[in-house]
Sequence to fold (614 residues):
Amino acid sequence: MNEFANRKVYIIAFFVLAGVVILGRLFYIQVIDSYYKRMADQNVMRYEIQYPARGLIYDRNGKLLVGNQTVYDIVVIPRELAAFDTATLSQVLEISPEQIQATLYAIKSKAKKTAAYQPALFRRHVSTEAFALLQEKWFKFPGFYSQARSIRSYPRRVAGNLIGYIGEVDTTSIAADPFYTQGSYIGKIGVEYSYEKALRGKRGVSIYMRDVYNRVKNSYANGRLDTAALPGDNIVCTIDATLQEYGERLMQNKAGSIVAIEPATGEILTLVSTPNFDPELFIDVHRAAERNALSTDPMKPLFNRAVMAQYPPGSIFKCINALIGLQEGTVSEHTTYSCQGGYSVGRRYVGCHYHFSPTNLPQSLQVSCNTYYCHVFRGIIDKYNDPRKGLNIWRRHIESFGIGRKLNSDIPNELRGILPTTATYDRMHGENRWKSPTIISLAIGQGELGVTPLHMANIAATIANRGFYYTPHIVKSIRGERPDSSFLVPHATTVNSSHFEPVVQGMYLAVNGDFGGTARIARIQGVEVCGKTGTAQNPHGEHHSVFICFAPKDDPRIAVAVYVENGGAGAKWAAPTASLIVEKYLTKNISRTWLESYVMDANLMPHNHAQTKQ
Fold:
């Protein structure tokens, strides 16, 4: 009897437990889990993301650099796909039925349970004509929808490396930020990348009711649950669009860079990196082959030489060594050295070109005497009777000019350059086995040194300001406000301002001196230009042509650095290019048309790798 009673209890308990499990599962499905609710909602409602228009980008004078245009994408919701009119869709979109099926198969394969009701990109940038035809026939394509979006337009098609471009997000970006979904666009390089959050705006969503034929009837809940897309913030850049266009024309068919800075603010007036690229390539979906060619081009047009190329500075570095010598008291503006065609110490020899001799400090910059700066450099390093201590002192002064570290500009991928330490030479020569003659190449900007053209322009701006600089930057304002207050803070060097006048005078004589100036080709009638040439040694071919300058002498409004790869002497290509930039900016005209033609018509690209203006 007890045995049957126990069975009865077990059976009742089993059914009670099963009932609790079933009720619990129903409660979870209906109350907690929103999946089936979403499925039901998807049957009657359509959620359409409203992508915001990206903020516009203007130059310092209000000229539009980057605008927007509306295009249409075709998306599909995998869960809603059903038999459709493949022939009509193929004809309207001008793609084969096989392509349609292959694309849909790939979409379905990626769509998991949680993504089957999410729109997936089917066809990008459909023409206005094709979109109009599709609008009349949506009922023939269940699961297909249109999605309007804003893409970039480039009225001037300049400054590709500076402005940057936008591209489709990858899975990493989607996982890191819920703002992005498949098919969203994101800034890749330049301003588009650095100021992505300001430019992208805020997404919105519109909810619509649909009928059994998949046609949108009206807004759900009279639009009360809709959210409007907020456009991105407009940005005003510091660059001068006219000067940027002109700089790119001057550097056509050359590899190198131009950077021009306003010394009083640190605002970058132009930043040219060549070879460059047409930003339209990243908008036009039909130019994929041209886009792919950019990444395999041996001249690296996507490589921003202005901030990513680390070059030996050459003789422009003599200006800084002169300033350090003055600060350390190892040389004065009246100190003279004779030059007999070079400097010799032990087995080491540094050659020099012919010029008048002896020279004082300003004259040494005027004629760019290598011998003079070998004396100056050894005086600095040997002052403390310990080359390690001397190098550390020298290095501290160099760093105060922003060399050997990032300048913290708002340009992405900026490199710090190369500045040797005592450890560098301990590794190369052995500890306590090197002295000032061992590292004498640093005297003339060679050896274990590397600076970017941005560093070079900043050196020119620092000398123009007689001892301080503002962080170089390319964005002037966002919504009318400064993007970063740190750009307003001056950075002083370790060299007293009183020591800059002899160096400024030497740079003035290099351009305007009556005899022996290495940069006389940079002279501009009515404008006091101060400049310094450089010829950076290149073991792989023709030397590089380098020049820095600023103008006017006593009220500097522009500081320029030009680096022309394989251009030879600084006066040959870099100096005339910088001079034309200065004249264009200060006078708005070019009086030396012969010089302009000389620079623009030159082709210094290897292997006939000519680049023409788009």
